[in-house]
């Protein structure tokens, strides 16, 4: 068996090769931001009212806002005008609001569709699929399905990456995520939109597992905390960039198309990087591992001689059969995290922390449109809020801990 840690002492713990791998694979986090928080823009809910005859607005000489206030009943519980009902009206033999709109009659449910305010976005998922009134819940379902996709992806691709390698996981999962992302762009029914959003999450999380594990495996122990922080910093950077894209492209199809096209280079990055040497050595694929290490050494400007390989090689040869024999029951699964008391406690502890972190993070981030002020500026500036939350939760942004984390530990 060849110990990769020993070889890192020879080729460098964080040389040009590792920096290149880190920068290329961290690009995934921008793609993750484009999709996980996309609903702030693509599912923006504009002001709306029932579709009524255009002759009424012209006849009464009302602005769009005045039309909403006059034709729609006021909902005191929501403290706003209801867009789901309208007062009966007529344009014949009337001269003003009181004679044209009968506000004493019971409101009528919208039966001719809805009229949306398109001053912020020309088209969103809400306006295209009429996800208002009785169908408002479909937007929440779509968001929930996306998170279910993350859950499925974490289970499926976690085992896949251990069995088939980090590079193959990245290539396959991101190619499929990219295809599903294009599927989202060209979805013109709500069912297809939900389906492709969910599948995008499944495959994107596979890419997350492959890229994150990869970058932490090719650097030295002391550098892992730094690359972990740097990897996640690309997430808020991607979200800020998406705010800029949304400002210039106000149709949700165009917005997601640009975000998808910007993400395409990651597929090329996943293809050109070598397989993780640490994974290759740990699974008995020594020759492939040596080839990958030699490539990294050449990029780092280092040379490996026979003494280097002898120093890194143990007398025991590791084969796939040996790996299986060394295990208690032949193979490990996710269930092994819950079999032993200490591991079970740690697993449940981490699960609870992730639940709380994500509850707070998404609860704030997905509702920034409710803040007063410009939507695009608020969403870009909300990354400061994100960075504060991540600092407290020690997930996305640990720059304040960079100097202390290697010494104080994760806990």
Give a description of the structure.
It is built from 21 helices and 6 strands. By secondary structure, the protein is mainly alpha-helical. Strands 1-6 form a two-stranded antiparallel sheet. It has a two-stranded antiparallel ribbon with strand order 2-3. The protein has a two-stranded antiparallel sheet with strand order 4-5. Strand 2 (74-75) and strand 3 (80-81) form a beta hairpin. The radius of gyration is 27 Å and the shape is elongated.
SS field, number of helical segments:
21
Helix-strand string: HHHHEHHEEEHEEHHHHHHHHHHHHHH
* Shape descriptor: elongated
> End-to-end span in angstroms?
32 Å
For the sheet with most strands, the description reads: 2 strands, antiparallel
Strand order, sheet with most strands: 1-6
Mean pLDDT rating: 83
Percentage of residues in strands = under 5%
Poorly predicted spans: 323-329, 393-401
- Please tell me how large the radius of gyration is: 27 Å
| Helix amount | 55-70%
Structural class: mainly alpha
Beta strands, count: 6
Write the layout of secondary structure elements.
Layout lengths: L3 H8 L4 H11 L1 H9 L2 H4 L5 E3 L3 H7 L3 H8 L2 E2 L4 E2 L3 E2 L10 H4 L7 E2 L4 E3 L8 H5 L7 H28 L1 H20 L4 H28 L6 H25 L3 H12 L1 H8 L4 H6 L3 H14 L6 H7 L7 H7 L14 H25 L9 H19 L11 H4 L3
Antiparallel strand pairs: 1-6, 2-3, 4-5
Write a concise synopsis of the structure shown.
The chain is mainly α.
